[in-house]
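S.,

Sequence below, as promised.
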Amino acid sequence: MASPASILSSTSSLWLAVALLGASVAAAGPLGDTEPGSRGTLGSEPAPDLAASPPPALGPTPLLGLWEPRLDSGAAAAGDEPETLVATAVGEAAADPAPLPPDRPVTIAFAGDVHFEGRLAVALADDPNTALDPVAELVADADLAIANLETAITVRGVPAAKEFNFRAGPDAFVALRAAGIDVVSMANNHGMDYGLVGLQDSLAHAAVAGFPVVGIGLDADSAYAPWSTEVRGQRIAVIGATQVLDSSLIAAWTATDDRPGLASAKEVDRLVAAVEAARSDHDTVIVFLHWGIEGETCPAARQLELSDRLIEAGADVVVGGHAHRLQGGGRKARALVHYGLGNFVFSTEGGPGADSGVLLVTVTGPTIARYEWIPARLQAGVATHLDADRAPAAVEAWEQLRSCTDLVP
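The prediction came back faster than expected:
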C-alpha cells in the first residue's frame, strides 16, 4: 500500500465544499426518499439517524445524513490519521514538490469493474472485511492496486432514468481496502446513478473512510484532478475519466467549472490538459478509463484514437473497461495500454463475462519494465485466481485478444 502524500482534516476545503453543497441541497427539499420499487442494493432504506449517536470527528456529515462507519473495520476514530490519502479529486490538494528520481521499480495492479449487487450485497453486509478475500491473492504482488468502482456509495437519492442503477453502503470502502485495493475510479456510467445526492454522499463517504477516488468531484477541477502518491521515491499520478455516458445524462453528469459530476473523456481537450499537467510533476502518469462497447472483445475506433491522444500528452499507462468482456492489452509506442479489464467484482453468473484477471505492470518512472496478465474467473461474483491447470489456457486466450488491436506484446 502506498504511503499517503497528505492528510485530510475535518477543516479541509473538501469538508467546506461538501457542507455548502449539502446545505444548498437541503434547502431545496428532502433528499432521503427513494422511489418505490426502484432498483438498488439497499431499496428504500432511509439514512440512519445520527443525532442520537454522532460519528466521531466527521465535521458536517450529520447534515448529509451519512452512515457512521464501522470503527472496528478500518474507519478512522477521532484523533486518528487516515491510513491513505483522500484523492485530490475529492478536493484535498496534495503538496507539489519537485519529482524525485525513482529508486526502484514499482508494480501496479489494474482490475476491472466492481459493484456490490445481488449476492455481493449480502456478502458485504455479512462482513466487509472478508467479502472480497479472493481479490487479495490476485493483487498481493503489487505495490499499488487500482480498480473501477461502478456504483454510487449512498443509501439515499432517486435512481436515474436508466435501465440499471447500482449503489452500495460505505462499507464498500472497507471491503476494497481489506482486499488490497488502494484507489478507485468512479468515472463511469454508474457513478451518478443516484444523482447529485448520490455523488455528494460518495465523496463524503470516501473522505470519512480516507479512501482515494478519482474521476468524480464537486467541479471539473476536482473531477479531472489526479490522485498523487509516492512509492519508493517514485511520484505516481492516477487520473480517471469516462467515455461512456447515457446520451440523456451527459449534460447532467459531466463535471463543469460550476457543477459537480464526472470527468468525461468526451471532453478530450480537458482530459489531455489534465494528463499534461500531471506529466509535469510526476514520474509515472496513469489514466484509468471507462470505455468500449458492451459485449465486444475488440476495442472501438474511439478507444484507439483516445489512447493515441493520451500517450502523446504524456500518459505512461492507459487502461480501462466497460464492455464486461476482456479486451486486449500490450505496448503502444512507449506506453502500456489495456482496452478491457472485464468484470472483477460483479454479479455475473458464468459465461464470458465471468472471465477476469489482473494486469500487473512494473514501471520505473515513465518506462514500462514489464507486464503480466494474472488470469482469474468470477466465483460468487468475486475474481478468483485460476489453478495451475487452467491458468495457461486463460493467458493464451488473453494474448489472442491483442490480434484485433493496435498493440504489440
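The domain at 13-43+57-404 is CATH 3.60.21.10 (Purple Acid Phosphatase; chain A, domain 2).

Coffee later?
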